[in-house]
Specification:
alpha/beta, two-stranded antiparallel sheet, 49% helix, 7 strands, five-stranded parallel β-sheet
């Protein structure tokens, strides 16, 4: 009899303990449902957008570098000797005065008390990064760059727009284009841009090198707005990364200048700036120098 009583007492005690445990677990479950705690995130930061078909997708890549502190560029000489090199923008094509941003920049600098003179304008219409690289091996080009305190470089527009066939198609009124064509030229061309900037620095270790960023001349065409903006922004980002590595280089952005103002800043060929567009670029260049 005594053993039976102990068995019943033990069973009752275990039942009570189990009931308490279940009740406590039930309470915690309710709290977890009402106030869930977020699990640690393993997601990577979003990567730059790319084009896939007619849509924009993100591609995985390593976390972006932290924003670098603003560079403090070394001082320039009081009297500036300027050499320009690159494509038709550096040449001033589309400006009815023939000045382009090169002569306009020098004029602004002189008007503000910074004595400046143009030594050489080595720009060539239609020049691409691929064509510019071997020219930097020429003795005459090297000599002209070596004499400069300030080197203005414009290159890349022909790689993006001529390389895709877009320039000819758009000027002919045809805007059918596979968006991927915009992006195909970017990787190799930006690598060549990196080589160009590095080679210019070897040729002239002391000069201030100013790279003129790209704008999107066909952003007023609905079919080309998104793919063009992505391609141009990708190019400019890559160029900025290269420029950031050199303490005496700077990039002058033009994308925002032309966005929404193509009717004001483009010439009749719908590609090159007009006198107003070149003036806007020149004012931005001079702001970074004065």
């Amino acid at each position: 009899m005594n053993s039976s009583k102990w068995i019943w007492r033990i069973t009752a005690s275990v039942s009570v303990i189990v009931t308490i445990v279940l009740f406590v677990g039930f309470i915690y479950a309710i709290q977890d449902i009402n106030s869930p705690q977020a699990a640690p995130s393993s997601a990577k930061p979003s990567a730059p957008a790319q084009i896939e078909g007619d849509t924009v997708v993100n591609t995985p890549e390593s976390a972006p570098e932290k924003d670098a502190e603003a560079k403090v560029l070394p001082p320039l000489p009081e009297q500036l000797k300027v050499t320009a090199i690159g494509d038709s923008l550096a040449k001033g094509t589309g400006d009815n005065t023939g000045s382009g941003f090169v002569r306009r920049s020098i004029q602004i600098l002189n008007d503000n008390g910074r004595q400046s003179e143009l030594l050489n304008n080595l720009a060539i219409n239609g020049l691409t990064t691929e064509a510019l690289l071997p020219k930097l091996e020429e003795k005459g080009i090297q000599y002209a760059l070596q004499q400069a305190d300030l080197i203005l470089l414009s290159i890349g527009g022909n790689d993006l727009f001529k390389g895709s066939g877009l320039l000819e198609n758009a000027q002919a009124g045809e805007v059918e284009l596979d968006p991927k064509q915009f992006m195909e030229a970017v990787p190799q061309a930006t690598e060549r841009l990196k080589q160009i900037l590095e080679q210019i620095r070897v040729i002239n270790p002391e000069a201030r090198v100013v790279y003129i960023g790209l704008y999107h001349p066909f952003s007023d065409l609905k079919e080309l707005l998104l793919p063009g903006n992505i391609a141009v922004s990708t190019w400019n980002h890559a160029a900025q990364q290269v420029v950031n590595r050199d303490p005496n280089m700077m990039m002058v952005p033009t994308f925002d200048l032309f966005q929404g103002k193509l009717d004001v800043y483009l010439s009749s060929d719908h590609f090159h700036p007009n006198s107003n567009g070149y003036q806007a670029i020149a004012e931005r260049i001079s702001q970074g120098i004065l």
